[in-house]
Amino acid sequence: MIRSDRDGAVLTLTLDRPDKANSLTAAMLGDLCDAVEGVGPDVGLMILTGAGDRVFSAGADLDEAKAGLATSPLWERLSGAIAALPCLTVAALNGTLAGGACGMALACDVRLAVPGAQVFYPVARLGYLPQPSDPARMARLIGPARTKLVLAAGARLSAEEALAFGLFDRLVADPKAAARDLAVGAPDHVAAIKAMVP
Q1: Do 21 and 53 contact (CB within 8 A), yes or no?
Q2: Is residue 148 part of a domain?
Q3: CA separation for the pair 120, 101 (Å, rounded)
Q4: CB 137 within 8 A of CB 117
Q5: pLDDT of the chain along its 198 residues, tens only?
Q6: Position 184 in a domain
Q7: What pTM does this model have?
Q8: Residue 62 is part of which domain span?
Q9: In angstroms, what CA-CA distances link 181 with 41, 47, 169, 172?
Q10: What is the total count of domains within the chain?
Q11: Residue 111: helix, strand or coil by DSSP?
């Protein structure tokens, strides 16, 4: 389930399946795509987070991954939609970030994580390629060698390593609250500033 909450110019989208590590079914992924693509110009901040206190998302639901969800074009549609938003986008990582869920966090402008969060994107071990835009987005953040370490070698990063690499921007006790505390200006001003940053 994808939960959408609006408070003024702040939109929070929550992956709400904590009993299954917030893993995404095809229906959830489609709903998330629709929610992101429906963000209007009056939104200045979009927060993407997960329910619970251990895992942001384990990526694709295991049963559906085996049935084809692992290579679905919906993942790329979602990350592209997030990256194209004119508002500030924040991944409020309440726990570990794994698998295909990495793409949505990489597409966000800012990544705030709890100190216990880990990053794990085991595509090579599972016999898949990463989402098409993920290697380039990751390399822009952490460089090509470290990107190969994560994607090709399947290295698991601790929160401290991810922060040192530049994959996480801050470690905070409550990422969702920290995201909401960001001093975001008027939506059109935010969009103008984002357009100025290469």
Answers
A1: no
A2: no
A3: 10
A4: no
A5: 999 999 999 999 999 999 999 999 999 999 999 999 999 999 999 999 999 989 999 999 988 988 889 889 999 999 999 999 999 999 999 999 999 899 999 999 999 999 999 999 988 888 889 999 999 999 999 999 999 999 999 999 999 999 999 999 999 999 999 999 997 788 999 999 999 998
A6: yes
A7: 0.95
A8: 2-121+157-196
A9: 20, 11, 15, 12
A10: 1
A11: strand
Single-letter code of the amino acid located at 27: A
| 71: CATH | 3.90.226.10
The crossing angle, in degrees rounded to 10, of helices 74-84 and 134-142 is 50
**Biggest alpha carbon distance in the chain?**
44
Query: Is residue 144 included in any domain, yes or no?
Result: no
> Considering the domain boundaries, does residue 131 fall inside one?
no
Which candidate, 118, 128, 129, 31, places its Cα nearest to that of 81?
31
Amino acid identity of 16? D
Q: Assess contact for 187 and 44: CB atoms under 8 A.
A: yes
Partnered with residue 191 across adjacent β-strands are: none
